[in-house]
Amino acid sequence: MTGLVIKLAPNERLLINGAIIENGDRRTKISIRSPQANVLRLKDALHPDQAKTPVARVCYVAQLMLSGDADLQEGHAQLLLGLEQLSQVFSDPDSRTILDDATAAVLQANYYQALRRLRGLLPREARLLAVTRQ
Prior knowledge:
5 helices; alpha+beta
């Protein structure tokens, strides 16, 4: 059986199915074998104030799904709508691949993988926004 393997730094915290887990003083590696476990590294979590751009807002919805703070049906629908809207802006092949992978993950209710893929668009979005502000 395969699963998600997470390497944790000393004292790093993560959220697993709504419970905050904190690592001890040493680096460690844990395997999460439950395929439907919701996992979020707290160091990767977006604060609501950071969700100001289109990609960040979609990432934040995925994060809410992982933390259990969003209604499953409503959050799922918001994620799909957000991905559709992003696909109208990001038309390069690499971005399309990221969006396709994120959409497939959402359709499988794998919000961790969707968030992981979407985070790859944040630097691209930042570059696009920097160009448009000049």
